[in-house]
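Support request from a user on the community tier.

User writes: "When I paste my C-alpha cells into the form, the page sometimes reloads and wipes my input. The last time it worked, I copied everything first. Here is what I submitted, just in case something in the input itself triggers the reload:"
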C-alpha cells in the first residue's frame, strides 16, 4: 500500500518497507519503549496524566538524554528532537527515507505519526500507530476535526478487545478497523484476518500497526460496512467498534456513521448474521436510541438477525444533553466561538427532538450463529463493575445457553453441577437474628453478578462439587429440613436453571 494522505493531515510512512519497520521495532524494544518501560520511566502520576491528554508531567519526566526519554518526546509527546540524539537510538536515515520521521529545521527531526506502546494480553509488546495528536491521551488529545483522522487506542477499543471471544478460528473480520487494534488482537488466534474501513488512511495505518507490532499482514479492503465482503464469504469471528455516534450529519469519519439516528448500528447487526459461519461470533460496541413510547429492549430485539443467539448488555445511558455535550467536546467544539457552539448544540437537540429520542444507550452486542429452532435472546442492563477480559465469560454464556436449551427439568435433576470459582455467600439480616432475611450469592470474577436465593438454593449451591446429581442433593436437603422430596424436586429446577443461566453453577460433565 503506497503513501496515503488526507487534506492537511501529514503524509504517512510507507507500509511497503517491512525491513525498516522491523529495524524500527527492534530499536524501540531495545530502548524499552514498551508499556512497562513507560510506566517505569514516567511514574504512575505522569503516565495517568497522559491518558487525560495532559503532557506537562511527561515532559518534565523526559528532560534527560536517555534513549527512552528521546523516544517518548519524539513519538508520544511529538516534540522535535536533535538529529544526533535520534541517530543514537534509531536507524534515522531509513526512518527519514521511509517516512516515519521528517526533518524539522536544520538539525532536528520529528515524528510523522504517533506510536503508542500497547501491551498484548499475553505480554506481547505491540505498537499502535495513529495520526499525530490523535492517540487517546496523545499530545493534543483528540480534538481534531480533520475528516479522515485516524485515532489510536481508547476506552472503546480496549473494551471491545476485552469482551471478544478468543478461541482459535480460521477467519476473522475487523469491520471499521481504524488503527488496527482489533485486527492485531485477532491475528493472534485467527489464521486469516480481513480488515475493512471506509477511510483508506485507516487501512494504511492498520498496515503500519501490524507491521510495527510484528504481526502477520491482514487482507485490507476499502468500503463501508459489509460492502467489501463478497456475498459468499463468511467468518468465524466478526468484530467492530463502528462509528456509532448518533449525530446530526457526518462530520468525522472515525465517529459519525452518516446514517440517521442509530441506523448504522442496526444495519451492522442485522447484516452480520449472513456473514457468520456456523457457531461463529459477531461482537460490536454500539449506541442506541431510547425513543418515547418504545421499550429500548424491544428496539434491540428487533435488530437481531434470524438464526442467531444474542446477548446484549446496556452499560450506560445518557440523556440527550449529556450525550450532545460529550461529543461536542470530543470534537473540540467547546473551544469555538460560543455562538457557533450553541448552534451546533441546538442542531443535536433538534435532531433528537425530531426523532423523539429522550436518551442514548451504550453497550455491547454479541451474536452467535446457531442452528437452534428457537434462538436465545438476552437483553439486560448491567451498569455495575465487571472484570475484564470477559471473552471467556461471553463464550461460557453461550455454552450455558446450549446446555439449558437441551435440558428439561428431568435432565437438570439428573445433571451434576459445580459451583463456579470465587463465588461467595452473604447472609443478610438484622444483627442478632437467628435466621437471615435472605441469602445472596455473589461472583467476584467476570460480570460480578449477585443473586438472591432461598435457604434450599444456598444449601444446594454450597455442596455442588460435581460428585452427586442435583436430584440426590435435593433428596438429602429434603431429609435435613423435613420437606417432601417430591415437592422439592418439583419447585427447585427453576432456581437451578437461573443459577446456571447467570453463571453461578456450571455443568460438571
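"...and here is what came back when it finally went through:"
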Amino acid at each position: 500500500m503506497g503513501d496515503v494522505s488526507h487534506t492537511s493531515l501529514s503524509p504517512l510512512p510507507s507500509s511497503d518497507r517491512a525491513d525498516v519497520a522491523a529495524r524500527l521495532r527492534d530499536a524501540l524494544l531495545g530502548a524499552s519503549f514498551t508499556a512497562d518501560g513507560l510506566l517505569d520511566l514516567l511514574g504512575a502520576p505522569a503516565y495517568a496524566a497522559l491518558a487525560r491528554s495532559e503532557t506537562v508531567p511527561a515532559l518534565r519526566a523526559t528532560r534527560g538524554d536517555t534513549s527512552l526519554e528521546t523516544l517518548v518526546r519524539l513519538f508520544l509527546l511529538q516534540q522535535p528532537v536533535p538529529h544526533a540524539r535520534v541517530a543514537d537510538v534509531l536507524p534515522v536515515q531509513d526512518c527519514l527515507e521511509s517516512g516515519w520521521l521528517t526533518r524539522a529545521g536544520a538539525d532536528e527531526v520529528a515524528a510523522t505519526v504517533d506510536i503508542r506502546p500497547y501491551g498484548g494480553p499475553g505480554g506481547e509488546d505491540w505498537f499502535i500507530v495513529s495520526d499525530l495528536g490523535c492517540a487517546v491521551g496523545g499530545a493534543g488529545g483528540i480534538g481534531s476535526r480533520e475528516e479522515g483522522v485516524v485515532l489510536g487506542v481508547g476506552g472503546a477499543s480496549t473494551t471491545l478487545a476485552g469482551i471478544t471471544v478468543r478461541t482459535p478460528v480460521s477467519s476473522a473480520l475487523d469491520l471499521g478497523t481504524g488503527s488496527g487494534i482489533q485486527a492485531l488482537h485477532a491475528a493472534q488466534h485467527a489464521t486469516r484476518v480481513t480488515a475493512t474501513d471506509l477511510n483508506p488512511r485507516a487501512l494504511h495505518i492498520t498496515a503500519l500497526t501490524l507491521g510495527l507490532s510484528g504481526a502477520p499482514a491482514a487482507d485490507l479492503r476499502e468500503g463501508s460496512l459489509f460492502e467489501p465482503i463478497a456475498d459468499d464469504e463468511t467468518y468465524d469471528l466478526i468484530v467492530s467498534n463502528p462509528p456509532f455516534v448518533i449525530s446530526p450529519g457526518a462530520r468525522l469519519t472515525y465517529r459519525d456513521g452518516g446514517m440517521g439516528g442509530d441506523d448504522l448500528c442496526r444495519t451492522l447487526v442485522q447484516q452480520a448474521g449472513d456473514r457468520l459461519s456456523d457457531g461463529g461470533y459477531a461482537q460490536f460496541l454500539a449506541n442506541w436510541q431510547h425513543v418515547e413510547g418504545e421499550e429500548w429492549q424491544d428496539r434491540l430485539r428487533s435488530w437481531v438477525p434470524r438464526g442467531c443467539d444474542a446477548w446484549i448488555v446496556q452499560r450506560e445511558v445518557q440523556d440527550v444533553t449529556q450525550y450532545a455535550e460529550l461529543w461536542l467536546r470530543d470534537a473540540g467544539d467547546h473551544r469555538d466561538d460560543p455562538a457557533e457552539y450553541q448552534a451546533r448544540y441546538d442542531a443535536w437537540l433538534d435532531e433528537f427532538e425530531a426523532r423523539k429520542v429522550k436518551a442514548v444507550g451504550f453497550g455491547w452486542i454479541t451474536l452467535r450463529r446457531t442452528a437452534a429452532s428457537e434462538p436465545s435472546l438476552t437483553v439486560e442492563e448491567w451498569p455495575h463493575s465487571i472484570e475484564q477480559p470477559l471473552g471467556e465469560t461471553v463464550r461460557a454464556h453461550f455454552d450455558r445457553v446450549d446446555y439449558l436449551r437441551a435440558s428439561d427439568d428431568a435432565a437438570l435433576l439428573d445433571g451434576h453441577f459445580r459451583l463456579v470459582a470465587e463465588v461467595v455467600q452473604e447472609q443478610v439480616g438484622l444483627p442478632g437474628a437467628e435466621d437471615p432475611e435472605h441469602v445472596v450469592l455473589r461472583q467476584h470474577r467476570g460480570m460480578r453478578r449477585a443473586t438472591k436465593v432461598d435457604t434450599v438454593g444456598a444449601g444446594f449451591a454450597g455442596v455442588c462439587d460435581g460428585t452427586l446429581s442435583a436430584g440426590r442433593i435435593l433428596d438429602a436437603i429434603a431429609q435435613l429440613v423435613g420437606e417432601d422430596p417430591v415437592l422439592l424436586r418439583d419447585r427447585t429446577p427453576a432456581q437451578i436453571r437461573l443459577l446456571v443461566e447467570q453463571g453461578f453453577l456450571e455443568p460438571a460433565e
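Agent notes: The reload is a front-end session timeout and is unrelated to the input. Confidence is low (pLDDT under 50) at residues 137-143. DSSP finds 19 helices and 19 strands in the chain. Escalated to web team.
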